[in-house]
Amino acid sequence: MSLLVLGTVAFDTIETPFGKAERIIGGAGTYVAWAASHFYQDIKLVSIIGDDYPEAELAALRARGVDTTGLEVRKGEKSFFWAGRYHNNMNSRDTLATELNVLADFNPKLPAAYTEVDYLMLGNFAPAVQMQVINQITRRPKLVVMDTMNFWMDIALEDLKKVIAKVDVLTVNDEEARQLSGEHALPKAAKAIHAMGPKTVVIKKGEHGALLFHEGQTFFAPAMPLETVFDPTGAGDSFAGGFIGYLAKTDDISFANMRRALIHGSAIASFCVEKFGPTRLQEIQPADIQERLQQFKNLMHVDF
Amino acid sequence: MSLLVLGTVAFDTIETPFGKAERIIGGAGTYVAWAASHFYQDIKLVSIIGDDYPEAELAALRARGVDTTGLEVRKGEKSFFWAGRYHNNMNSRDTLATELNVLADFNPKLPAAYTEVDYLMLGNFAPAVQMQVINQITRRPKLVVMDTMNFWMDIALEDLKKVIAKVDVLTVNDEEARQLSGEHALPKAAKAIHAMGPKTVVIKKGEHGALLFHEGQTFFAPAMPLETVFDPTGAGDSFAGGFIGYLAKTDDISFANMRRALIHGSAIASFCVEKFGPTRLQEIQPADIQERLQQFKNLMHVDF
């Protein structure tokens, strides 16, 4: 039993209407690992950083049960860097800078202990890198979840489709589901994506919640209506991390449990947006999560 | 026990990516009455039409239990007419024509039997007309629900606020809630609207569901994910009609029952969009509604 997480570990500079955070830690791998660690502690992280990445942040991850032996540290090089500015409604953003740095020629090498895992989370990364990880796995995991983004649909669609064909669950946002499938209506988009391979499709709608499609069944998980969304960065990754972390903890991939996992992902994502970067994911305690889950129960409760 | 419904009764010409429907019946009063009639049959309609309106449609309403003695028919004049064209995503539309006709100088006169009702639905109408109806009510109803739209916020905000101050429940869409309150975050918008009078605020988000805010509690009702949205016209009115029709039927205005009523409103609205105009509202049978409610249960079911 282990959860293997692939995803970028990086620096972000983020501007929102509330302020600016310079070169804070970020990246899909960071958010997924922190989010999943609230439910499950046997996590193995595969990624790459330069020697500019703060050792204290790696130590904090290790203290959460995250194995970083698969995190390549390249001497004399810089970590991936992204800078972006959110618009006033927080629903759209402009990318101000992207510096690939160590990502430019990353070829992941899984340590032996990483090659037999029960849960695999392929966080957002170049499809070719996601495929390299799949190819080094020696025993089929119980569940492979993949996240991606429109960027890869634009520049590497064929590679992307090869990875999609190999996973159990694809998580994309609504616009990405439309782009990938060519269908506007989300139930039709999910059907088209099922036909590409994944038996389960999660369509993330940000503040509008998420839909789970699986063998003709559909589940809807709302997002918590929040008074303040401080920084949306990493919300989708946190959602995916909470989702797979809960599945790994409970070791149950039934549709009924995936419904629960989606709520747990929504709960973790609702914390993520409350402060800049992964700050809230690093602060929250089990009691905070229990309280938020109770708020979700209140939000969703109806008998008819 | 009666439900009084105010709302336009009109002709619409509707263009969607699927086709065009010329001069079909429409108007908020038509949609609210048809929607509510699936749950409750003692409905009194107050509105105005010209002598161009088809008698068969009025007979169909009366056969559903809708009292039309408060529907003024003005000889030699034409009914209200609206024409619009939906964009490809169905989320936005252009108004192509608005002919007020009989609406230009409508001053509703409630028949005596209309002045003591338990439920009052002020469908979308000029705030001054909504106020005239309130002023003719001789006994405070158990519940007054009001719908409105951004148009009245633009041209009659002071009148609108006077009506809002007198109602128990305000239903508006998300953009209207933001415009009315000046707040972007919907929980903040709801608080600001509570301060204007309504103890209960329903914020409609179309395909993204609806939020119910009441005394610090929040409930979220999803919309049914549909493969085809044929014509969104009247969906919000149908939602409001299903909501108040269910409340009138059960005669229970507790928050727990409002949660159920919101699901019933969502179910009725999900039928409305399946064909042009109110066609589906006129076709569906109790078994169809029961089946749709079961689909909502499946969509929402989770235990955690």
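qc> The two ends of chain A are 40 Å apart (CA to CA).
qc> done
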